[in-house]
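Extended Data, panel c. Modelled sequence:
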Amino acid sequence: MRRKINIMSNDDTLRRTMIGKRYTVKGYVITPYELTVKALDEDRRSLNQTTQEIKLEPLKLIYKNWYAHQGSKGSSFVELAGQNPIYYESKLPQTLNHRYILEDIPYGLIPMASFLEKFGAANKNIISIINMACMTLGVDLYKHEQARTLKTLGLAEKSSEDIIDYITDRS
């Protein structure tokens, strides 16, 4: 079955397309999104092959555990997110300059890419998303004032073992 994919090239197109409309997240959790999340999760979970101390579960399972009590059901990420009642009324942002990008990338993906690199784990999918966001916004999110890396977190000089000890023991 072919799915219609809504592609909006920039803020102006986004605003013109959405004027007077209230799109919700529910209608936009589709297979291409699931494939992107799966690729990012593969990078995240590649950490499992680099150390015995860390064993990360698939994001789909984590999501199910977090949201099943709110009514999220399904066997795929698209089903779990698309059928989650919490998103039924959640409005999509009407600009690309939104916290979903301006916070999630500097606070989430950039530190994850830095962390994975330190451990010799795969991070090419995460780096691709970061770079695409930088290109789309015309902003270097790596230099964002609040971007976090192992260096800005004070962990760059620590060994992988010291980082694991810090994470697990908080010392």
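The helical segments are 11-18, 31-45, 59-67, 77-82, 99-102, 104-118, 124-137, 160-169. This feature is highlighted in the accompanying rendering.
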